[in-house]
Amino acid sequence: MPCCYDGLSAKLVEAAGFKLTFMSGFAVSAAYGLPDTGLLSVTEMAYQANMICNALRYIPCIGDGDTGYGNVANVKRTVRQYINAGLSGIMIEDQVSPKRCGHTKGKQVVGREEACARIRAAVDARQEGGEDLVILARTDARGPLGLEEALERCRLFRALGADWTFLEAPLSLQEMARACREVGGPKMANMLGSGLTPLQAPEALRALGFSVAAYPLVLLTASCKAMQDSLEGLAKGSEGPEQLSFELLQDLVGFTEYYREMDRYGLQ
Questions:
Q1: What is the residue-wise DSSP string for 61-75?
Q2: How many CB atoms lie within 10 A of CB 98?
Q3: How far apart are CA 135 and CA 122, in angstroms?
Q4: What ranges in 2-161 are assigned the alpha helix state H?
């Protein structure tokens, strides 16, 4: 599941044939020129989600809902805003606010009771709205509180109605296997290059028991590297590395489809 952060990155994921994408909070923050440290508001995230969902034609997108942006009333409002934006799922986590990327230093989590209340509120908001929305419950407790607490939180989240669980930043294959073995329901793995969790091929993750693997920063890091190389080339008097042709770029952003629609109605 490659993660997107704007309309164009979402279109590229869909065009590549993937069946699902995820709006990454880290990547959206980066697109705003900010670190993933809880600086964006729910309004900004919902706006980006709407842009992404409008760009997609055939595949669903799950959105990073961070901590729910406040108390349980905020969690429920966030769920409703994400539904209105067109998302098919939402991830809610148990970090304190302001939160931060799960693979960076200094993160902390709320108590077990508050963590469970967030998931209950998200499930209730889905039921009250009569919506078919995937609730992905994330815990970051592995770092500050240890693996046993993280596992217990995942089990509690499932009992409260979460569809998927996500134990962030396990440190070994043994910990990943325990998360799959000791928690029911679908589990998500987070494959972040140079992160805390061992990188594994999709087949290996499937063998461990994971249902889906997120690749949160592949598109962002690749695009940043390409832009840096191009800018370096321009500074030296060239265009840098090989680029897409203008014709292909027009097709990617939708000119081909636009012209097809104009021809259909006899317009130029």
A1: EEEE-TT-SSSHHHH
A2: 12
A3: 7
A4: 7-15, 25-31, 42-55, 72-85, 112-129, 142-145, 147-159
For the chain, the farthest-separated pair of C-alpha atoms sits apart, in whole angstroms, at 65
Read off the amino acid at residue 208.
Answer: L
Amino acid occupying residue 265: Y
What DSSP character marks residue 203? Answer: H
| Tokens (6 digits) for 156 | 């509690």
For residue 188, give the 3-state DSSP assignment.
Answer: strand
Angle made by CA atoms 196, 202, 207, in degrees to the nearest 5: 95
Per-residue pLDDT tens, the chain, 268 aa: give them.
999 999 999 999 999 999 999 999 999 999 999 999 889 999 999 999 999 999 999 999 999 999 999 999 999 999 999 999 999 999 999 999 888 776 777 789 999 999 999 999 999 999 998 889 999 999 999 999 999 999 999 999 999 999 999 999 999 999 999 999 999 999 999 998 888 899 999 999 999 999 999 999 999 999 999 999 999 999 988 877 788 899 999 999 999 999 999 999 987 6
pTM above 0.90, yes or no: yes
Dist. CA 107–CA 105, nearest whole Å: 6
The pairs formed by 183-188 with CB atoms below 8 angstroms and a separation of 24 or more are 183/151, 183/154, 183/155, 183/158, 184/155, 184/158, 185/158, 186/211, 186/212, 187/211, 188/136, 188/164, 188/212, 188/213, 188/214
